[in-house]
Amino acid sequence: MALYAELHRHLGGSVVPRVLWRYFERHSSELISGFAEYSDFEDFYTRPRNTLDEYLELHTLVESVQTVETLPYFIYRLVRGAYIFENLAYLELRYTPYLRTPEHLSQSERIDKMAEIVKVVGQASQLSEYPIVTSQILCMHSRLPYEVNKAIVDLAAQSREYVCAIDVAGGDSYYADRMEEWIRLYDYARSLGIKTTGHLYETTAGCYPQLLPYLMRIGHGIQIPLLSSELLKDVARRGQCLEVCPTTYLKTGTLEDIRQLKLVFDRCFEAGVDIAICTDNAGLHNVRLPFEYENLLTYDIISFEQLQACQDAAFRHAFAWPYSQRPVSLLNRLLKPDHEKVLATKD
After folding, report:
1. pTM, whole model, 2 decimals?
2. Which of 77, 169, 173, 327 has the smallest number of Cβ neighbours within 10 A?
3. What is the CATH code of the structural domain delimited by 4-329?
């Protein structure tokens, strides 16, 4: 039975290496002509990078082939794997729709095409054989102009059937010069009733306290407990949740050792700040959510009780989870002896 919630997964980084390789073999063999065999491609695709910028360049490889025509192919395999191999009951997929539109079109034409992308992703995610509750987070982008980012916010407001929130991505070191724009866009989104998260405090270059009040969740946020623990009190007061993606910080060179995350979890638990454990880019990492759980336990970063608290937090902070309980609570009820079910009904 599906049990877990994934709150931070990028559409571009979610394609596992084998699926991407097979697609390239059949449709874009020129993109893998430099690799003698699959193992060489997998090593290139999943190896650690020195910086976040270098790591984000890999997204462009996938974005170039995620079009209106091909998105159903990739999303079917993504949802199938999430259900069968990860036991996901809930999945939020985030991406920048503008970057899935044809590059030869004008900016206004690409903006007009974004709604079609959102609809295709939404419809392709609804698979009766793999019953996962899915929703989309639309990402504004640090490299895109204000007009495009505002159009992304407007599209989120117009597509509530498929979209649960907005985000800002593209490298947190690039926010500073346009901070007034981001504040204006987030303020605008909140005025429309759109839920918000944002890639913030992921790296030491992405620490912008002025953006925190506009976010309902914080994408990554690990530098808050590591460098600015005095902010945790306000984070807890606002009820914000950190979306912590353990493997990412090793792949981007942000952390040298996963055990550095122990301080993140310890300080957050002490301050009453919720953490949802996520994968970020499961394909680029070649890992799945249960592995992230197991790794944190293996290195004694968290206890089993803390893991359960993080799993509970993921459903509690899920923007589009339609139920008051997480699936394990429903399963426990089904497995109760008959006389306990009767008593529970009477209660």
Report:
1. 0.91
2. 173
3. 3.20.20.140
